């Protein structure tokens, strides 16, 4: 029996790329098997699968934190059971594009903290570098192990209505979300047994093993001691910290668990001090070392930067990496690719306006209803202005704030994010999505996990996919 009720209200959005249907309202080839399965499945059965997914997430404690929510900070991460599916051809371009981009960004970070050729040659303005809050003067001239600054990256992609993938932003400081990617796949295996092998879907479960191997290879010690440094239980990504430490079989530590002695980092144990060789830190630069950055910080370790400079410990990602994921620097990444690699960018940037330039500010202000304005150091969907949703007063007040320090803001056209089918109230309905693939860099090159985290704007008509702003996620299938 065919479940026509499930598909009865699926209406494609105008001028929007739909992941499941083409322009002729035909199911795309990669979705044929899953749609055939869904049509054979009753709405009641799908509802039970949804309930099972929620129970599994709850039992696993898969949560995130919303700091602005007065009702309570811990929430179960919303999950949509219908997977987002990419073809092998689509993934190949994404894979090559991200590797190209990370390679160029790593070269850029090395350059700005050493010879600064890209500044001397006028490719990136010096004042933009030095005014960036993520530029660490303390990293000038520091020898970084194997010249790798970006060990772990999450690159946010969107598919525009032309069907092409564009880079929305580069997350290079302490990128999060990979634990949700892993958990989403485990849930899919439980609620769709047999469907993944039938669709020949590439695995993502090897991520922790690949990460651990790359972390170990960064140290010159035999059997190096690797730890994961967390800010603690009140951090929004604490669930992820505990999950990754468990899956890699390494210690999860806080700043109070570590001490620097004779320029070496040690972990406090019941048997005394144990040397630490590699630190996968989820603590921001500002809080990493109270002797050099924020003196009030209790999250980091006093003296850790001195140990790092002497080469006695490896910090992942390298301090100062944030210079390359600042939204003001994002504009220049295509130029970096051409400058360092002599290649054309495989993945395009979104057109971005620098509001410190009077003519670009004027253009944005005149077309504000078609623009989104972001803080250059913002994240999580906070502090943005979505022009098409804002009132005249909100726009006026926001632009007044921008004028006080326009170099701290950029603007982009509001794009038509692609949509994917989501199970809403027992029916399939299109919702806007993006994609965050995860890249791991090591001595043996860059590996991209085949899939990544697909974030979804569960609110009808919304373009904001951040979990902190009402978004959720879905499993991402890449066909072998």
UniProtKB/TrEMBL annotation:
InterPro entries: ATP-dep_Glu-Cys_Ligase-2, CP_ATPgrasp_2, UCP005522. It comes from the Bacteria. Pfam families: CP_ATPgrasp_2 (PF14403). Residues 83-457 form the Circularly permuted ATP-grasp type domain. PANTHER family: BLR5612 PROTEIN, SLL1039 PROTEIN. This is Protein containing domains DUF404. It comes from Jejuia pallidilutea.
């Amino acid at each position: 029996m065919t479940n026509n009720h499930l598909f009865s209200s699926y209406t494609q959005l105008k001028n929007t790329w739909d992941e499941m249907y083409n322009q002729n309202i035909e199911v795309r080839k990669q979705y044929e098997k899953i749609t055939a399965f869904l049509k054979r499945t009753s709405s009641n059965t799908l509802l039970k699968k949804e309930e099972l997914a929620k129970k599994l997430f709850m039992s696993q404690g898969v949560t995130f934190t919303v700091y602005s929510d007065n009702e309570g900070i811990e929430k179960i991460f919303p999950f949509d059971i219908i997977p987002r599916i990419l073809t092998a051809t689509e993934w190949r371009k994404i894979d090559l594009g991200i590797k190209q981009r990370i390679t160029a960004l790593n070269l850029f970070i090395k350059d700005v903290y050493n010879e600064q050729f890209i500044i001397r040659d006028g490719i990136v303005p010096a004042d933009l570098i030095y005014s960036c809050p993520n530029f660490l003067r303390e990293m000038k001239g520091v020898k970084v192990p194997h010249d790798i600054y970006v060990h772990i990256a999450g690159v946010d992609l969107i598919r525009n209505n032309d069907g092409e993938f564009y880079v929305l932003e580069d997350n290079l400081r302490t990128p999060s979300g990979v634990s949700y990617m892993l958990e989403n796949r485990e849930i899919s295996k439980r609620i769709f047994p047999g469907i993944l092998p039938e669709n020949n879907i590439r695995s993502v479960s090897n991520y922790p093993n690949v990460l651990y191997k790359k972390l170990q290879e960064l140290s010159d010690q035999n059997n190096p001691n690797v730890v994961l440094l967390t800010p603690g239980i009140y951090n929004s990504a604490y669930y992820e910290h505990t999950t990754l430490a468990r899956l890699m079989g390494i210690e999860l530590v806080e700043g109070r668990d570590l001490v620097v002695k004779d320029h070496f980092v040690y972990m406090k144990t019941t048997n005394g001090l144990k040397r630490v060789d590699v630190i996968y830190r989820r603590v921001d630069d500002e809080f990493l070392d109270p002797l050099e950055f924020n003196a009030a910080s209790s999250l980091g370790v006093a003296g850790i930067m001195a140990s790092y400079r002497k080469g006695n410990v490896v910090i992942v990602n390298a301090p100062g990496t944030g210079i390359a994921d600042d939204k003001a620097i994002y504009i220049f990444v295509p130029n970096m690719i051409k400058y360092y690699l002599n290649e054309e960018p495989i993945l395009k940037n979104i057109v971005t306006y620098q509001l410190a330039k009077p003519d670009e500010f004027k253009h944005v202000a005149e077309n504000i209803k078609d623009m989104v304005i972001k803080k250059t150091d913002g994240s999580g969907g906070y502090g943005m202005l979505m022009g098409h949703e804002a009132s005249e007063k909100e726009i006026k007040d926001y632009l007044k704030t921008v004028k006080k320090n326009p170099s701290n803001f950029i603007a982009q056209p509001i794009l038509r994010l692609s949509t994917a089918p989501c199970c809403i109230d027992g029916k399939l309905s299109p919702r806007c999505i993006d994609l965050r693939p995860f890249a791991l860099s090591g001595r043996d090159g860059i590996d991209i996990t085949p899939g990544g985290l697909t974030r979804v704007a569960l609110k009808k008509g919304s373009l904001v996919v951040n979990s902190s702003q009402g978004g959720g996620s879905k499993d991402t299938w890449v066909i072998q």
